[in-house]
Every structure is written in structure tokens, then in C-alpha cells.
Amino acid sequence: MNTPASAKIGQLSEPGEYDDGMQALLQIIWGDGFLSPGGAAEIACLLEGSDIGGCALLDVGCGLGAIDELLVSEYRVASVVGIDIDPSLLAGMQARIERAGLSDRIRGQQVAGGALPFADHSFDVVFSKDSLVQIPDKPAIFTEVLRVLRPGGRFIASDWLRGGGAEYSAEMMEFFRLEGIAYNMATLAESRDALRAAGYVDVTIRDRHEWYLDLAQRELDAMEGSLNPIIVHRIGPERARHFIDNWRQLVLVLRRGELRPGHFKALKPG
After folding, report:
1. Which residues, including other chains, have CB under 8 Å from residue 157's CB and lie 6 or more apart?
2. HSE, side-chain direction, 13 A CA sphere, residue 179
3. Per DSSP, what are the bridge partners of residue 125?
4. Which of 20, 69, 199, 214 is deepest in the core (most CB within 10 A)?
5. Distance (Å, rounded) from C-alpha 185 to C-alpha 178?
6. Contact (CB, 8 A) for 60 and 127
7. Higher model confidence: residue 265 or residue 164?
8. Residue ranges covered by each domain of the chain
């Protein structure tokens, strides 16, 4: 059973957790190159009110690179360094960036556990889309992000957060088992307090629970209906059944309020 597991602060996932079948399924649901909910529309929501044009940006947990391509092409970011622990994801990212002709502005870098492998004051923005959930020591990664940000730099991220009590329910543990990915979940309030304690200012938190509950239910309906033949063709009936069971459990823990995705933004003092 893959339950919330310990990992070093720089660890984003275990290599191989996102196998070919999972990558195929997630892209059918969320769009080409996207491995987290909402695709380009949710990136727009996360970046609402944030002008990042001309910035040097670090993407923590870059996956297949669709977000990094979007940040450069649509949001005018000057340069992106995307980091991930999984070499297969980085290979997919590299191929995507080369096809887009953006290799001079975007590069991927494999990381392992430990501190972020960058000098102090290296980036104007540190960005992350739903990868911090795989890092157990939130205060430590927040401190590392603060270190690599330039004075006045911004931390913009979304994360899979939790509601409920201190202990995970049996339903949540079953969700973790079906997911097969290590989850290390803080609450909205814990995230806000940890950011402030690390030294950030202008910390804002946005609860995305209602949005994702509605989206996940619509995704489940599509997986059981119109998308089912496509999914079965791509990954086979057994994997398709597994992921549909996974999505049913996802909707259940969302309805119980135990899974609460959120956005947060914070500023490094100038």
C-alpha cells in the first residue's frame, strides 16, 4: 500500500510512479502534456492577478512540460528551469520543448532528495502545480524556495491539501492505495502558517475544493461514458477499471471534505 511516506524535501515522487498507463490516462482526462487537474484553464486561475512576464522561473515538479511551454508562450516568462525526479517525465518534457522550438528558454533538470540545487537568489518566481503534496516537510521546502527566490520574488503554487482530523480515514487510505503515489498533505491553514513562519509576506490562500469536486464528478462521468472506449483502447480494460475505481474514491473523499485542493501565493520581502 502506498500511504503518505517520508521523503527528503527535494523529492517530488518516486521514479516510475507515473508509468506509461498513468501518463496516458491523465492526458486523456486533463489534456496533452498535463498531469494535474484542470489543464490550461486551471493554470489561468492560479496565475490570475500575477504578471510573470519577463521573469526567470523555477517549476517544481515540471512533469511532461506542457505547463512550462504555456508559461513561456502565453504568459511571457523569460526562462524556465523545470525540475522533477522522474527521468522518463523529463525525457517527455525535453521532446515537447524541442518540438515547440523553446529549448533556448526552457530546460529540464533531474533532482534527487535534498536541498534545491540552485544558488541563493536565482529566480524571480518559483511555481509548482500539485507537486508539493509529494514532499513531506513543508516548512523545509518553503524555506528552500525562499532561499532561491530573489528579494521581492514570488512563490505561486497549487497543492493537494486536506481537511478533517489528524488521522486519515479508511476511505482516504483506500484512495491512497488506488492512487499508488505518496501523499503528504497539509491543511490550508497549516500551509498559510508555515509560509508566514518561513518568512514570506502577503500570503494568500484560495480554497479550490468546490471547483475540484464538480470537475472530478464530471471526469468520472466521462470516464464511465464517452471517454471509456478511448481509455480502454489506450491502456486496456484492467487498467481502465482500476482508474475508474480510483476516480470514484477521489469523488468520495472530496465529498467528505478530506481532500481540499488549494492555491497559495506568497512574497519574499524585498
Report:
1. 46, 60, 126, 127, 128, 129, 132, 263, 264, 265
2. 19
3. 57, 154
4. 69
5. 17
6. yes
7. 265
8. 20-162+185-210+260-267
148-165: per-residue pLDDT in tens? 999 999 999 999 999 977
Residue 220 cell numbers, joined: 468520472
How would DSSP label each residue in 193-234? HHHHHHT-EEEEEEE-HHHHHHHHHHHHHHHHTTTHHHHHHH
The CA angle 221-228-64, to the nearest 5 degrees, is 95
Residue 193 backbone dihedrals phi, psi, to 5 degrees: -65, -40
Report the length, in residues, of the chain: 270
Query: Quick one: which of 57, 29, 24 has its CA closest to 126?
Result: 57
Q: Which residues are 204's β-sheet partners?
A: 265
Give CB contacts under 8 A, 24+ apart, made by 189-193.
190/138, 191/138, 191/159, 191/161, 191/262, 191/264, 192/264
DSSP state of 32: T
What is the rounded distance in angstroms from the CA atom of residue 250 to the CA atom of residue 213?
Answer: 9
- Class of the CATH-defined domain 20-162+185-210+260-267: alpha beta
50 to 7, 47, 166, 264, 270: CA distances (angstroms): 31, 5, 34, 12, 17
> What is the four-CA torsion angle of 248, 250, 252, 257, rounded to 10 degrees?
-170
Pick left, alpha or beta for residue 152 (phi over 0 → left; psi -120 to 50 → alpha; otherwise beta).
Answer: left
Q: What is the pLDDT of residue 69?
A: 98
pTM of the shown model: 0.91
